[in-house]
Amino acid sequence: MRQPVKKTKKLKKELTLDQKINRRNFISFTTFGVLGATAYGGWRWLYTSPLEMPGITGGAHKPLRRALNKTELFFRRFFSNNNQVRTYPKSMAAKIVRHNSDIGADGKFDVTAWRLQVNKITGEKLAITIDELKALPKTEIIFDFKCVEGWDQIQHWAGVRFIDFVEHYQLHDETRLDYVGMETPDKGYYIGLDMPSAMHPQTILAYEMNDKPLPLNHGQPLRLIIPVKYGIKNLKRIGSISFSNQRPRDYWAELGYDYYSGL
Amino acid sequence: MKAIKEKHSLAMRWCHWVNFPILTIMIWSGMLIYWANDEYKITLFGHTYVRFFPDWYYNLLHIPHRLAEGMAFHFLFMWFFTLNGIFYILYTIISGEWRDLVPNRHSFKEAFLVILHDLHIRKMAPLQNKYNAAQRIAYTAIIVMGVGSVITGLAIYKPAQFYYLTWLCGGYHFARIIHFALTLGYVFFFIVHVVQVILAGWNNFRSVVSGFEIVDEKPVSIIQTTPKDETTS
What's the domain count of chain A? Predict the structure, then answer.
């Protein structure tokens, strides 16, 4: 028996195959187009986003700087004094040590007048001679020095470990703060280090390279060797060291580079 | 008779199209970084064939003097690249779609036949499911390469904290070379992939956006005709 055909809205015709195809094509390609356009818009927004206000950091797009800082927080969780950079036998160290830049360590310089100035939080200032530093326990390190540009070289340095330096000069109150700042005598180059990296057992105030006193172009008489950072943090010719809870000024962080620049 | 045949899941399509722009940005920002120490070249018997990269190439793409910017982009989009990859791999394992993807014991022999077919040397292509043997190998390899990029990337990003990864990659210097070579691999993959997609045509391309292909199914007769011999005997 035939069912009487009622005129109701319930009665839906089954879509034909072509209708189904058209419908699915329409939905998916519209979605694809809209999402694609949104993604492109998002990219344009990021690419043309304004630069950050110049301050402790500068030169980077605002959202990208935020991302760098957030990423730093994530990766700092993995930082540990137990994670040390690989060391090599002395025979593998480069005889000609690569030299990239003289910012802050150029021009005429009187080595004999040099003193390492340490600004304690009490306001007291220490003035330390190179011989006083050489009297402290000496530590050698032969490691793969890494430049932010991408090159690396096995180099041989020696000097006082930063932790030994802190111990000897009783800087424990200072190292309870979050950051260390170092500057060249002419203040042309300056870096900021997070305290855990500075206190890493492989961080060295170096006065020797390949068993000889530092040459002029490698930061005579004292430079920083910090293997858990890129070369940009390995300040040549240290003039002063200070401590703070705020990020000290940092030459390359002002020019768009990551403040942390940790390895 | 025409019929709709489901081909790609929504998750697979999503991951594919999300990955495309992200990987493009990673390669571009990677070049901004690489420029600062562009020492790689292909030299055989004292003759340099390819230098990565020639000046005209750098200038064309406005690459020089953008290291800091490159790093900032690279270290943001690495998150999206990695998360999208993790999501895709987990999805493919859990859904069981890996069965259509991962090469099986016939794949390597069959892939050769597929290539002969694609080069018009052989007429018949081997029977296949969703992917043919060559596709299985290529699409699995590209995922393995993605994992390789993340691992070599971490090995050069934090060689002190992830020293075991750096060790696994043969040291810092070599890890950077692998990281670069994998990128060349993506570009090579991309070229072959795009050519193949163009050759395969619209129906195939559509399936990566809308998920289905239109196939021509032969109508199967429902009434079975029994051979005469058997009935009479």
Answer: 1
